[in-house]
TrEMBL record:
GO biological process terms held by the UniProt record: defense response
Bet v I/Major latex protein domain segment(s): 1-83
Protein name: Bet v I/Major latex protein domain-containing protein
SUPFAM superfamilies, A to Z: Bet v1-like (SSF55961)
Lineage top rank: taxon: Eukaryota
Pfam family, one: Bet_v_1
Amino acid sequence: MIDNENMVKETEIIEGGYLDFGFTLYRVRIEVKDNPKDETGSSCVVKITIEYEVKEEAIANASLATIEPFVVLMKFANEHLLSSS
């Protein structure tokens, strides 16, 4: 799902990847919002939500559902944007 007006992107794994590790649902939602603390409007806040369900026999794999890869990506994007301005 892509909602450009509200700056929301949502994706769901439908085969492979996390489903191969016992997940029955793995959905990521990324929302970009204006930073309410920035009066210049030159920064934003990114909210990342992971929704998942995992089979009982694969419950140990639930720890794979983390936002850490997205945090690394956001830090990289931030550094790139700051260095190119």
